[in-house]
Design goal:
By secondary structure, the chain is mainly beta. 2% of the residues lie in helices and 33% in strands. The radius of gyration is 29 Å and the shape is elongated.
Length: 203
């Protein structure tokens, strides 16, 4: 490992620094030294570095566990995934621009159900059944400020009062200052946003 300017020494050879310290050339005389900030733990096969690492080439690893990162530039090709659970939250400060491609939202189709409790993970609810259905909105405070929800009548017939889509706010919440809203007519839709407190507003 001399070509890299550092080496790891075991107990057979006398090294400098704490136990497990990775050795490196120190000074013009070529002496070796070690530091508690650069240690190799043989029991866990772990290299521990306290401080910064600057890599001019390519870093490859089977798995990255990132605790905190400051991004200077991020470029990626191919598909990518963020998170692995619907409860995960990803926060962006600034604008998001899609140059090409499309934006897909979470879609739920209801058919023969007569009741459905919407969750914060729903973005589009399409009712394709011919019968009455009652849909309860999630709490605005749980959904969060700016959460949007679309409820659409997908059935190809006029929806009457008897077969309406009855949308109700959670206890204590309002929909445009009312507790409920009825979707009737021909293929009507209801688009809502949350104020993050106790109201859903139609827009």
């Amino acid at each position: 490992m001399g070509e890299f300017g550092w080496a790891y020494l075991n107990d057979v050879v006398s090294g400098q620094g704490v136990e497990g310290a990775v050795q490196y050339a120190s000074g013009a005389s070529g002496l070796i030294s070690g530091s508690e900030d650069f240690v190799y733990d043989t029991t866990t096969s772990t290299l521990l570095l306290t401080g910064s690492m600057i890599i001019s080439g390519t870093l490859q690893a089977h798995t990255f566990d990132i605790i905190h990162t400051n991004k200077i530039e991020l470029q990626a090709s191919g598909s990518s995934n963020f998170g692995n659970d619907s409860a995960d939250t990803h926060v962006f400060t600034g604008s998001v621009t899609i140059i090409s491609g499309g934006l897909s939202l979470a879609y739920k189709r209801t058919t023969s159900e007569n009741f459905y409790s919407a969750s914060v993970t729903n973005s589009i609810i399409g009712h394709s059944g011919s019968g009455y259905i009652a849909i309860t909105l999630p709490s605005a405070s749980v959904a969060g400020v700016g959460k949007t929800l679309i409820i659409k009548d997908e059935f190809n017939a006029t929806r009457t009062e008897a077969t309406m889509i009855a949308v109700s706010a959670s206890t204590g919440d309002k929909i445009d200052h009312a507790t409920s809203y009825s979707i009737t007519g021909d293929n009507a839709a209801l688009t809502l946003y949350s104020d993050g407190v106790s109201n859903w507003f139609i827009y």
